[in-house]
Q: What sequence folds into this?
């Protein structure tokens, strides 16, 4: 992954093409470090180095090219996998499965989107007894059905459970697209995986 250390323009090709976006050094939710998932690299004809990164924007799986000089590359040993058919979150470290969490996934009319994403932001919640539990790990994934969740941008998250969300049992498909896990599990995850960690959601 790459930590953005200076505001950088996103382009459709390495060093070329119109501006398609911009990445700040901090996330818009918690103000934490902005880290992006790197999916490719290339050296342009002029010798400049460019990285293809997964963008925290619609549509899902959006990618663009940023200057290598605007980031610091970092190794992340973690990998998160969400199996919709098993309704389970699997956590890997250095390629080894270390934890499994039972989960609530999106309902048939508001399905959890599939694809390769990343953790965009890690946000502590004001009360562990609230709907989202103690933590919400916002992803670069967005709902393909809903434009917003309670006024937000429709960004999908892995979060805890509390209040009304406890009505939906683990192992069910009843959310608006987010992935809900036990509070102890989301707390364990939030204290280990940094932003930029890959998250693969598959059937």
A:
């Amino acid at each position: 992954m790459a930590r953005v250390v200076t505001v950088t323009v996103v382009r459709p090709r390495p060093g070329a093409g119109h501006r398609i976006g911009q990445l700040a050094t901090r996330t818009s939710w918690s103000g934490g470090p902005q880290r992006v998932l790197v999916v490719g690299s290339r050296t342009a004809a002029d010798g400049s180095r460019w990285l293809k990164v997964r963008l925290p924007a619609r549509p899902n799986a959006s990618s663009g090219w940023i200057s290598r000089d605007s980031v610091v590359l970092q190794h992340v040993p973690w990998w998160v996998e969400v199996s919709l058919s098993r309704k389970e979150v699997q956590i890997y470290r250095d390629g080894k499965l270390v934890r499994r969490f039972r989960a609530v996934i999106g309902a048939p009319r508001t399905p959890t989107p599939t694809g390769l994403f990343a953790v965009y932001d890690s946000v502590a919640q004001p009360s562990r007894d609230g709907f989202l539990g103690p933590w919400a790990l916002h992803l670069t994934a967005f709902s393909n059905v809903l434009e917003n969740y309670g006024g937000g941008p429709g960004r999908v998250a892995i979060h805890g459970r509390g209040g009304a969300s406890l009505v939906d049992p683990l192992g069910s498909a009843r959310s608006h697209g987010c992935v809900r896990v036990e509070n102890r599990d989301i707390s364990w995850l939030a204290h280990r995986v940094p932003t930029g960690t890959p998250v693969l959601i598959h059937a």
Q: What stands out?
A: Residues 78 and 92 are 6 Å apart (CA to CA). The mean pLDDT is 95. DSSP finds one helix and 18 strands in the chain.
